[in-house]
Amino acid sequence: MLELLLVQGRLLKKVLDSIKDLVTDANFDCSVTGFSLQAIDV
């Protein structure tokens, strides 16, 4: 189970909205050290 608490949730939405047109397949890695995205662009 993953639970996120964002002070500014709009910031994450803006980032994801800008990425969605650039990549078709992406993997999100959520860990204690942070949040990362590995994607293949086309």
TrEMBL record:
One of its GO terms (biological process) is leading strand elongation. GO terms for molecular function: DNA binding; DNA polymerase processivity factor activity. It comes from the Eukaryota. GO terms for cellular component: PCNA complex. This is Proliferating cell nuclear antigen PCNA N-terminal domain-containing protein. Residues 1-41 form the Proliferating cell nuclear antigen PCNA N-terminal domain. Keywords: DNA-binding. InterPro entries: DNA_clamp_sf, Pr_cel_nuc_antig, Pr_cel_nuc_antig_N. Pfam families: PCNA_N (PF00705).
